[in-house]
Design brief:
Layout: H1 23-46, E1 76-81, E2 84-89, E3 92-97, H2 100-110, E4 119-124, E5 127-130, E6 135-136, E7 141-152, E8 160-165, E9 168-179, E10 183-188, E11 191-202, E12 206-211, E13 220-231, E14 238-254, E15 261-277, E16 286-291, E17 305-313, E18 317-321, E19 326-336, E20 343-346, E21 349-361, E22 366-369, E23 378-383, E24 385-388, E25 391-394, E26 402-404, E27 407-409, E28 412-414
Length: 416
């Protein structure tokens, strides 16, 4: 096994083994680590209760351009030529045949057993995999797919194009998926997980699911997602459940059956942008949804979830916080034409919406509400909004609700 430079169209030359992550991957991991470190420092400060929401982060200097898919050195590769897939361990062929999944599995097996530093696989070409099978990535593995994986057949429970369970230091810098998988990417009980440029133009299934449901006493930790585009799901676009330490650059969701981005029981999270169109049409789901005690740490709700911007057009709801979630600041909102509420805050605590600015256009309204089975909403702030052809309603009354500095245009307000 040996890392080598970008492969020609067929067999790459052999190269001597070099331990550790290759330079481009190391740079990518360093970038991800820097994001997480910066995030950790920010959330340490955010975790202290404050009367006012924390200030927005200052604009950062432009980061160096990311390496193109497949650039640089790697340890194993998979290359398509005609109808044949060939997997290489350095310069040695370890698989040749028509099955893309078996070729990728062979490349994974070719990496150093028991390794403690990341080794990289590059896949070149597009092909099909079965919806009833998965590519499982072990710890200290990076998989980069320079092509499109089309999922065919009947989905099987918990299967995914890429699956990582009970692992650490796993990275998927590039992945394009079409078809109807059960999951596009599935991570369960992992640590130090990185997803880069993920593009999923689906006809069913769920895009990205990250949870801790193999051992709910131990959260999945330190997850970084750079940029996800997801469309056409039969479920959510991106969903987390039981995560501590989440950094997302952007989620762009189009015509997902349920939410574009759903965070459940996730703490210490920072999201740059959620952009949803047609998310959850005809349902109560939203472009961005927080549920199931999302943002709750122990028995309290220190501010630990920060979202830069939520954009929503059409669909079900724009922004939805529910079921004892909170500890969140959403800096900017731009929501219009939703089929249900533009914004619904139900049994949530310490949530600030439009900390910087926002615009909501009907027909969907803005509502602060509570169900009887949970404590009433508390510490909700709606501010800096321009509300057009809509309404702001609080019913039943919450505790310590603040509604201020809003401009109503052909809209009504009824708050306690």
């Amino acid at each position: 096994m040996g890392p080598h430079s970008a492969a020609p169209s067929l067999r790459p030359p052999a190269a001597p083994r070099r331990r550790g992550a290759p330079a481009p991957l190391a740079a990518g991991l360093a970038t991800a680590s820097a994001l997480i470190l910066a995030f950790s420092g920010a959330t340490a400060a955010l975790s202290e209760e404050a009367a006012a929401p924390p200030a927005a982060p200052a604009a950062e200097a432009a980061a160096p351009a990311a390496a193109a898919c497949g650039d640089g050195s790697f340890h194993a590769s998979v290359v398509r030529s005609g109808g044949t897939w060939t997997a290489y361990d350095g310069g040695e062929t370890v698989y040749s045949g028509t099955n893309l999944l078996e070729a990728m599995r062979s490349a994974v097996r070719a990496l150093t057993p028991g390794r403690t530093s990341v080794e990289r696989i590059v896949v070149r070409g597009s092909g099909e995999v079965s919806a009833g099978q998965s590519l499982d990535l072990p710890s200290y593995t990076s998989l980069e797919v320079c092509g499109t994986v089309n999922v065919v057949g009947t989905p099987g429970g918990d299967h995914a194009v890429v699956r990582a369970r009970n692992v650490q230091h796993v990275s998927v810098p590039y992945l394009n998926v079409t078809g109807a998988p059960y999951f596009g990417v599935f991570v369960r009980n992992g640590e130090h997980i990185h997803l880069g440029q993920i593009d999923m133009r689906l006809s069913g299934g769920l895009g990205v699911r990250i949870d801790n449901h193999a051992d709910r006493s131990r959260p999945t930790r330190d997850v970084t997602i750079d940029d996800v585009y997801v469309s056409g799901t039969g479920n959510h676009g991106v969903e987390t459940y039981g995560v501590d330490g989440l950094t997302i650059g952007a989620v762009t969701a189009r015509n997902t059956a349920y939410s574009g981005l759903l965070l459940n029981q996730t703490v210490n999270a920072r999201v740059g942008r959620v952009d949803g169109q047609g998310t959850g049409t005809g349902t109560g789901y939203a472009a961005f949804r927080m549920a199931n005690r999302n943002g709750r740490i122990g028995d309290s709700y220190p501010t630990n979830v920060r979202v830069g911007e939520v954009v929503a057009r059409g669909g079900g709801r724009g922004l939805f916080c529910v079921s004892e979630s909170g500890g969140a600041v959403i800096d900017r909102v731009d929501i219009a034409d939703t089929g249900s509420n533009a914004i619904l805050v139900e049994n949530c605590h310490n949530v600030t919406i439009a900390a910087q600015s926002g615009r909501v256009e009907g027909p969907g309204d803005i509502r602060i509400a509570s169900r009887a089975e949970f404590p009433v909403s508390s510490g909700i702030t709606l501010q800096n909004l321009t509300v057009v052809d809509s309404a702001i309603t609080e019913r039943p009354c919450g505790q310590n609700t603040t509604v201020r500095s809003n401009t109503l245009v052909n809209s009504t307000q009824s708050v306690c």
